[in-house]
Design a protein that fits this description.
two-stranded antiparallel sheet, two-stranded antiparallel ribbon
Length: 444
């Protein structure tokens, strides 16, 4: 039965995406609609495993990685070269259908939460809260892939992506503005905050599911992307008051912080660098130069040089490396927000607390002296550089470049130079051609 109702709902979602005229012909009967809490949980597991790895794919457009495997160039090179108008049929597309499939499942749970049977009230509220937070997070991811950066002048009134807030498959979706999407994201996060009641999953294998602490953690990121420094700081500090543990890279038993079993893990929903990406790419030599002597992340994050002279990331490639939120990011969110509001004492404190766990003792002493003497602008620049070093290959870099100054990026690939100019329009991805083909109204 579980397999059947998932298949039928998936058929409904395909109808939604492909633009079927009517849903009535495939509407599930009562015998296949989930009714019990356990059946809804099965549905939710299917939704969680459908979340795409597009944040990792976007990193190819940043300054971290390049396609080093010649067999994969046809699949990924258009992304690393910012060729948004390519007509290639072999280029991997940024997902669209799966994001909206997850939104459909989220809406289905939200709409039917009052119909769930054989479950405790707190358990039903928890699942519904997860659905609200998932809806917020998926819309947030989509608007940052396919909408203009919130912090760019005039962007908030620009058209971005359609909000999917219900399961009405006959409704024609049109693109909402950046500000409308962000307003919906925050509202959904506030709704989730009222419903989530699990502090921590005892079974670490359930860490893909949201808990109470995920709300302020994700709100901190949302406010950071909006340039709302005050609220970004408040939400980050809420998290760090409750959980502030970091992996100590000086400890021989440390675990990579984006591992789902890491002590830093707050949520491990996303698989940002999957096996396909891992095999296709290597680290750009220019990115390696961001790391200085005594930075323990060099050996922790990067494999030794291969026969081709390139180094690969150790932070992905198998299902153990799943990370959507971790404490290391919250230290950096707090530090940046504090620095931008002139609270340099707290900004230095949070930055140095992270650095102390990532450098040798001697290197940390040197960096501590430098950080303590930085003025506001120099400190902000250092925090942003530390974000690049610390969050490498976890799906943050492209979004950080977008929300800040959208810098000029130059890459030399196969002997040819490619340039993404300062504030280039290509910092906003084009909608997938298959999505526009299915719904031409997305062009408006």
């Amino acid at each position: 039965m579980k397999k059947l109702y998932i298949e039928i709902l998936s058929a409904a979602i395909f109808c939604l995406i492909a633009g079927c005229d009517r849903f009535l012909d495939i509407q599930p009967t009562g015998s296949v609609i989930p009714t019990t809490l356990s059946e809804y949980r099965a549905l939710w597991l299917n939704a969680c495993t459908t979340v795409p790895a597009n944040r990792g794919l976007a990193s190819l457009g940043a300054d971290e990685l390049f396609v080093s495997n010649s067999k994969d160039k046809d699949r990924y090179s258009a992304i690393e070269k910012w060729e948004g108008t390519t007509t290639s049929t072999t280029t991997v597309s940024f997902d669209w259908a799966n994001y909206y499939e997850v939104l459909f499942f989220s809406n289905f749970i939200i709409e039917h939460s009052g119909d769930i049977k054989e479950g405790k009230k707190t358990e039903i509220e928890q699942l519904t809260g997860e659905a609200y937070l998932m809806r917020a997070y998926i819309h947030f991811t989509l608007v940052n892939l396919f909408g203009q950066p919130y912090t760019k002048d005039g962007s908030t009134d620009s058209k971005a992506i359609p909000l999917r807030m219900d399961t009405d498959l006959e409704k024609v979706l049109t693109r909402n503005t950046v500000s409308e999407v962000y307003a919906s994201v925050i509202e959904d996060m506030k709704s989730a905050e009222q419903l989530l009641n699990v502090e921590k999953w005892d079974d670490v294998s359930l860490s893909y599911r949201f808990t109470k602490i995920c709300v302020p953690a994700l709100l901190s990121r949302v406010y950071l992307y909006m340039g709302d420094w005050k609220n970004a700081f408040i939400e980050a500090e809420k998290v760090l008051e409750e959980k502030n543990v970091l992996e100590d890279f000086k400890d021989k038993e440390f675990m990579l912080p984006n591992h789902y079993k890491s002590v830093e893990a707050l949520n491990s929903l996303e698989y940002t660098i999957n096996g396909d990406y891992q095999n296709a790419v290597s680290v750009l030599p220019s990115f390696l130069k961001l790391y200085s002597k005594g930075d323990l992340r060099v050996e922790a994050f990067f494999a030794p040089e291969g026969e081709d002279g390139n180094r690969k990331s150790k932070k992905g490639g198998n299902l153990e490396f799943r990370s959507t939120i971790r404490t290391g990011e919250l230290y950096l969110n707090s530090a940046e927000a504090a620095a931008r509001t002139g609270n340099l004492t707290v900004a230095r404190k949070r930055l140095l607390q992270l650095m102390e766990k990532r450098f040798t003792s001697d290197a940390y002493i040197r960096h501590k002296s430098l950080v303590e003497n930085m003025d506001k602008e120099t400190l902000i620049a250092e925090i942003l550089q530390e974000r690049a070093r610390e969050l490498a290959f976890e799906g943050h870099r492209w979004f950080d470049l977008r929300r800040t100054n959208r810098p000029r990026i130059e890459k030399v690939l196969d002997g040819k130079t490619y340039v993404l100019e300062q504030d280039d329009p290509r910092y906003t991805l084009q909608l997938p051609k298959e999505a526009v083909y299915a719904n031409p109204g997305l062009n408006n």
